[in-house]
């Protein structure tokens, strides 16, 4: 005949076993879905912080026009072009204190790891339109706090390129004008909009358009 203490111990053992099994099953599900990748992107944004020196570089919007030295038409910034999936550098956004890795390509594989570089656009620092994209619920979750006059700094193997945001736009999801060529070195940053949209088919895009103001 089982005593109350024996029954209690057996019930406790059963509960602990069931709990352990549930945690194992949840772990298997979590690791096999995009949830883990999105969590990685969120943690990347939360932990990838710029240094205090870079944050202090952000000042109030200025109307001063910065003249860059004339470009050498024969200068080649990237002798070796990146392959799809390559990490080509970092995007630093002092206004929100973030440093984010940039990967060549904008397929889901790249966007789950960081910021994607639209492969048909020029590389950072080159003349024309450099286009970057990222998920609004991971790396670009606070991009809405960035506006006219703020700095966007891209560091690659070719150097450090600082862009100043000239304007922001909200466009339809299928608007292709954001990737059109530009007459000078421009950085276009895109993410889904509205920022509180739930799901994968947000109807609009939030766009930052920035001009190159310095290069090191």
Automatic annotation (TrEMBL):
UniProt keyword list: Hydrolase
Active site: 135, 192
Keyword Chloroplast attributed: no
Transmembrane segments: none
Pfam family, any one: Sortase
Entry superkingdom: Bacteria
Molecular function GO labels: hydrolase activity
Annotated InterPro entries: Sortase, Sortase_D, Sortase_D_1, Sortase_dom-sf
NCBIfam families per UniProt: class_D_sortase, sortase_fam
Protein name, as recorded: Class D sortase
């Amino acid at each position: 005949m089982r005593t109350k203490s024996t029954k209690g111990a057996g019930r406790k053992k059963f509960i602990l076993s069931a709990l352990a099994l549930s945690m194992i099953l949840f772990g298997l599900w979590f690791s096999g879905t995009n949830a883990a990748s999105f969590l990685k992107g969120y943690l990347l944004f939360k932990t990838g912080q710029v240094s205090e020196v870079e944050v202090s570089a952000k000042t109030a919007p200025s109307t001063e026009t910065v003249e860059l030295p004339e470009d050498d038409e024969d200068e080649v910034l990237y002798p070796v072009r990146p392959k799809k999936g390559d990490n080509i550098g970092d995007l630093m956004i002092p206004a929100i204190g973030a440093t984010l890795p940039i990967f060549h390509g904008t397929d889901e594989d790249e966007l789950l790891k960081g910021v994607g570089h639209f492969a048909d656009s020029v590389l950072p620092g080159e003349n024309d339109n450099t286009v970057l994209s990222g998920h609004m619920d991971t790396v670009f979750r606070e991009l809405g706090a960035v506006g006219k006059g703020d700095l966007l700094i891209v560091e690659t193997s070719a150097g450090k390129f600082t862009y100043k945001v000239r304007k922001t736009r909200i466009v339809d999801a299928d608007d292709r004008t954001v990737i059109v060529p530009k007459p000078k070195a421009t950085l276009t940053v895109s993410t889904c909009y509205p920022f509180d949209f739930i799901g994968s088919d947000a109807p609009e895009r939030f766009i930052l358009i920035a001009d190159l103001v310095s290069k090191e």
